[in-house]
Amino acid sequence: MNAKMKVLALALLGLAGYAGSAVAGCPASPVPPWTSADALGGTLAIVSPGYAGSACHLDSALTGDAAAFATVSDGTPNAEPRYRAQFIINADNLVNLGLVDAAYIFSATGASGPVAQLSIVGDGAGGRFVSFIVLNGAAVNSLPLTAGENRVEFDYDTGAGTFRAWVNNNNEASPDWSTPISGTATVDTAFLGLAGATPTYLTSFNGTTVGFDQFDSRRQTFIGF
Q1: What is the mean pLDDT of each run of 10 residues along the chain (225 residues)?
Q2: Which of 52, 66, 104, 191 could form a disulfide with 195 if both were Cys (CB 3.0 to 4.6 A apart)?
């Protein structure tokens, strides 16, 4: 994995088996480094336009039970002790997300299990948040999302013993959340899309799409925008 491991704008991604058909300008077959696109009790679709100037974005929706998922995966990380990632999410379709309505939107995993899991949650008052769960709950925090496109970035660094997160924040020196972490768990795979929803989420938002785009992951440098 290079210092800039990859830029995975979904404008460059087409995955066979997605619901619907690829639109003009969107490839219709897998583009590395995405290694798979999988949906069980859910759907994946490439639609146009994309976010922040890209041609297409990914829509993920869940239609099954708590085991349902609709994600793309990236297997290019190789036991990474430091892992930085960013993606754009648009969750405007999740109107009136409740306090116990939640679904995973991103997961970085390794041989020992999840390293960092991000979920979308509500506050019962119309607000939407991205929740960060680090090292199986050793550190947890939620940051607010705005309407429209949101850039979510994090830096998992076992060497420095820190986890930092930015939401719509282009200032590396001032993360929106920073917490100490311990241990040497590394990252091997990343999953982007919806998975592991709560029962109330599935009841209220069955088939509701959440949009994703412009995933980028690296070893070292801040991604920003």
Answers
A1: 39 34 48 78 89 89 92 92 96 93 96 94 91 92 96 96 96 96 94 95 95 91 89
A2: 104
Whether residue 224 lies inside any domain: the answer is no
Domain count across the chain:
1
Q: Kindly report the pTM of this predicted structure.
A: 0.86
Q: Answer whether residue 65 is part of any domain.
A: yes
Question: Cβ(70)–Cβ(223) under 8 Å?
Answer: no
Alpha helices in the chain (DSSP H): 199-204
SS3 of 81, please? coil
Q: Are 163 and 178 in contact (CB under 8 A)?
A: yes
Instruction: Tell me which residue range forms the domain holding 192.
Output: 6-218
